[in-house]
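During the no-cost extension, the postdoctoral fellow (Dr. R.K.) reprocessed legacy sequence entries with the updated structure-token encoder. One reprocessed record is reproduced below for audit purposes.
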Amino acid sequence: MLFEIIESVSVPGDPAKPNDDAFAAEPVAAVVLDGATMVSENLMPGKSDAAWIASFGARRLLAHVKDGDTPRAALRHALADAERSFAGLRRRPPAAPHELPLASMIFAAPNESGFDVLWYGDCVALVQRPGEAAEVVGAALEKRAGEATAAQRFLDETGLAPVEALKREQYLPLFRSGRAKVNTPAGDWLFSPVAAASEHAARARITAPPGTFVLLSSDGFLTLATSYHHVTLTGLVEAARDQGLKALAENLRTIENGDPEGRAYPRFKQSDDATAVLLKLV
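Re-encoded structure tokens follow.
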């Protein structure tokens, strides 16, 4: 089978800043990557190391699949590419683990019975077979709930709007300590310029018939269902199919602009980068 690419959308959380999400889609594979907001200075050329790792990963993953790699081999080779490029182009080696660029990922490639999927972090695939509710592939629901709980706790303990946390220098050590656990036994593994991360991607083989819709999404887009309850998860796929991804992205920003401090919907950014790709198995 192959993917029919229905639509894609990728909008920055702040139009004045780089979009740290990236995607790529071809009939043989599709991927969404969500670069983690940097909590240190950038080491690579360009405005955002997070945008670099996301866009680099999207390009290389698709290139390796088109060259004939299996999904797992494509991931292994793309991470090795990232490790080499980071070492060659960075201004200096990272002084601490939190300086490493990182990204969540959802990466899917069709096969004879459905598709293979690999993921890191809180990107997700919603799979809607004909006549069925959507199946969630990935860990986005748990991770989004954890972030909302942390934002609510910040609001309760400080009285400050959660979106202020990333803007205040005194809270940076907290974010950096969490980031330093990534790619270690104490934390999660993410797409990064660390070739060894290829052995730690979550993976699944999804059985699905032709006519199945697959929505690949960053957590910033998924919040329409998980945090804002604008639609259900199944409703999100159906709305993407019937209304279009761009209309949903506009709805997303309307909700967030109505709660700019993150008090009604606790979160650490007023708006996150939001990316989605709608596919159909054919």
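Residues 3-281 form a domain with the Phosphatase 2c; domain 1 fold (CATH 3.60.40.10). The two ends are 6 Å apart (CA to CA). The remaining legacy entries will be reprocessed before the final report is submitted.
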